[in-house]
Amino acid sequence: MNESGNRRPVERGSLTERLEATPRWFVGPRGPGVSDTNDGSSFRPFASIRRALRSASPGDVILILAGIYEEHIVLDKELARAGTPEAPIILRGEGLPKLRAIMPERPLIQVRLPHWRIEGLELDMGGSSARAVSFSHPSQGSCLSRCDVHGGTGVGISTSEGAAGVLIEHNHIHDFHQEKASQGCHGVVIHATSRDIILRGNHIHDTGGDAVQCLQPDDGWTEPAEGVLIENNTLESTRGSAVSIKTSHDIIVRGNRMRNFRGCEGGWRGGDAVLVHYSAWNVLIERNLISEAGCGICVGGLKDEGRPDPSRVVVRDNTIRDISLERARNNDAVGIRVNNASDVRLLHNTIERTGGFAVRLGDSGDGISRGVEVLGNTMSAAQLVRVGLDRPGLRMNLNRYSSGGLFDASDLGQTRGLAEWKRFTRLDADSSLEA
């Protein structure tokens, strides 16, 4: 467990430290001397990846030589063997060979076997609306690394149907969008029933929806996603959020760089870098650098009637800057917003240069913000804090504010003086102005 009560996702070793096993099976682009009747050696390579998949056993390495391959990869028990923890099967590209989608309704790669490592491929979706890569049960210990995934009108990578223990690391995921109605074109989607998923070191940009989305269940009995680590990624220039966390739990968003988010025409608010809503719980958001967005971090917002609001959310040690009204559309350029949520802790964040308030809570009309703590933050903006009436149990203290910024306590009044703010709100007793 971590300090916020989250169960930590299981972490595995980096693929950069993978086994340097000698390739056993070779695949080359079609041409003279390349055939599936060959023995798959470096001198007589197979002509299709499918043929190599049928041949590989635990511990084997399949090396795909540079070229273009118009085929879809299906890793399931009917077509391939499973790897083992001690002897995974590695499917490795040399010189970034390109897989090109030829069946628009099918994923380019489907992983339904454990302990397969797929690395060093270009996955060109060619405008297909299917997922580029899908992981589903049983996929424990399988991973996608160092791949260039692009060019679709659907989703880049998804985990679903009980996928567990999947690593998605150091990939370049980009250019998933449609000419119209492109909000569903996400970079990575973690579906309900997924468990222990790690996204680390990826660069995701230019998607029509979110860079990463944790999707809520469609019904009241499906288990939500749990145990997701989103760490050290660069997430930028999407028409949705960097990270959207819907009903799921035990989620960590750590050490990411997020920039350039702008709300869409006709969308619900928009431009939020990180959005925690519906009934998400046990969420830790820490040490992220967020800039150039319509809102930095929003906890609360969209909800399912009759279901709990987000709860047990810790937001700490983040830097949020350059949040502008220009990017906000229906949003209001807030650094951190808390709506209809409970047990939310904002700790030691730095918020500067916001077009709206640095922190805004308990005033949305969507519900009650209960048990919120705002402690040890540094805020430098023309508008510092706005608190509404729907904020029972609010604690604010040990914060540092820039001089001359606006404080707003709803019907209690506005002031640009910290002493007056303390007097009429009974908050921030030990807070101070920056020197």
From TrEMBL:
Domain Right handed beta helix: 226-378
One of the Pfam families matching this protein, by short name: Beta_helix
Xref: InterPro entries: Beta_helix (IPR039448), PbH1 (IPR006626), Pectin_lyas_fold (IPR012334), Pectin_lyase_fold/virulence (IPR011050)
Transmembrane segments: none
Name the UniProt record assigns to this protein: Right handed beta helix domain-containing protein
